[in-house]
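Predict the structure of GTP-binding protein ypt5.
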Amino acid sequence: MSKQFQFKLVLLGESAVGKSSLVLRFVKDQFDDYRESTIGAAFLTQTVTLEDQTTVKFEIWDTAGQERYKSLAPMYYRNANCAVVVYDITQAASLEKAKTWIRELQRQADPSIVIALCGNKLDLSARRQVTEEEASKYAEEEGLLWSETSAKTGDGVNAIFNAIAKKLPLTAPPPARGARVTASGTTRQSVDLNRQAAAQGGEACNC
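Done. Here is the predicted structure for GTP-binding protein ypt5.
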């Protein structure tokens, strides 16, 4: 029988970096050219099946990026098992904001939380302000998963959520609904999805 696990995932990042579009692409494989800003947070679920048939269900909290909602964020990342911190590769300031969120998670979230840094809007790479080298170096220093995605085209979206699922602790018994799954005793390790794919002889994750 396949094992089933359930994890709380939170999305953080500045307003307009594409968090909601990223989740919509992952959950429904859809993209809307215009989406209104999230108010407070939105809740969605999606399931990932790993190669060994282990099933990982993500309970996703998509948080609002506007400053006036920042004080609500701890409600959503508290007890989260994993987080995707999103920046816009065409806006350098959004990476600095992402770093602020990551520092906050490192200080206040569960020490075992799996954090992925996600550079969105790869389809606009001609307007890039954040280089792959800058972002991947930061992720490596902080022990984060890292990749680039395009919510518009779908490039790399599933890959980054699959990478999170693979990194989560899947050795505990399947939790009851609402129960927490932690990874006590594990250490954080950086995984550059683009390099990983290249090392395996596959195409880079272009996420």
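The chain has one domain: 4-199.
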